[in-house]
Amino acid sequence: MYNKRVFNDVNEQAGMILAVDQSVNGIKRATQQRLQYIELMAFYTGVVTRSDVAKAFGISDAAATKDLKFYGQIAPDNLIYKHNVFGFVPSTTFEEIFTDLEPQQVLPMIAANLPFIGQRVEQNLLYGVNTEQLPLPQRLPKKEVIAEVIRAIKQKTKLSVIYSSLTDRNSSDARIIEPHSLINTGLRWHVRAYSEDTYDFRDFVLSRIQHAQQLTDKAESNPEYDDDWIELINLQLTPHPKLSEEKRQILLTDYAAKDDVIEFTVRRALLAYVLQRLSVDTTEDHSLNPNAYQLIVMNRDEIEPFAGWAFL
After folding, report:
1. Predicted TM-score of the model (pTM)
2. How far is CA 101 from CA 18, 36, 138, in A?
3. 75-124 pLDDT tens trace
4. How far apart are CA 155 and CA 152, in angstroms?
5. Strand intervals (E) in the chain
6. Where are the beta strands (DSSP E) in 34-124?
7. For residue 208, what is the DSSP state?
8. Domain with 151 in it: what CATH number?
9. 74 and 152 assigned to the same domain
10. Range of the domain at 160
């Protein structure tokens, strides 16, 4: 005699499969979000496990197994189970069904540590407030390139890249790097990595990586060896001295300054990006237009050694 709950579950899953045949959008939103996560995790990190799904959504291992099985029924050629990793890896013919895997969609979601991509509400605004973002040009490579980068970070392996540098180096030469973090400057994305060519840690602009291939060799470096990454420094800013006192006070209020100082902590490796993003006048004599560059650095001597290219 069948357990009534099992019988209902089978019926529910059969109904889901029928709905998928008609339209992917017919699946319940909560289920679709978990299937999105399975797809995204598999493609970008190279493996998705039952434990991954269970932890991401706070569900039982049994429920996570059910989701993985359901995904396999919908897209039988997308994932392959590998015993050595106790999880599913993307096949060579993998094609997304539930998720827009383009980098401009996925990277902000990864940065926000969200398990799935939010779906646009077509009718009413959830909070009753209109918002808009600047239509900035996208500076991202193909999703296949970013997937290789993320897999190397997660699995702590070396990565071979063809990188177009603004220096004189031949862009067709392969480089071996050991990536450990992604950086979003608000203008573009970088990957922080150890470079075997230059024997140091540096940033590589993601949109300049023409080709990437994850290697099987394990990375020999570690983020803990990246001094500029782990060391924090206090950045001290203040309104431009050529602004009127009224404007200076407005800016101090804008930034919740204390004692006329806008102070916050930054990784040394990110100092230059912060100065660039905030349009800080980094000239010694504060000669830039104060209406365009409204802030100056107070502790220049302390931070300039770690953000040289941002100083004029």
Report:
1. 0.83
2. 25, 10, 15
3. 999 999 999 999 999 999 999 999 899 998 888 888 888 887 764 444 55
4. 5
5. 79-82, 87-90, 157-163, 174-184, 189-195, 200-205, 209-218, 232-239, 262-267, 280-281, 295-297
6. 79-82, 87-90
7. G
8. 2.30.30
9. no
10. 143-227
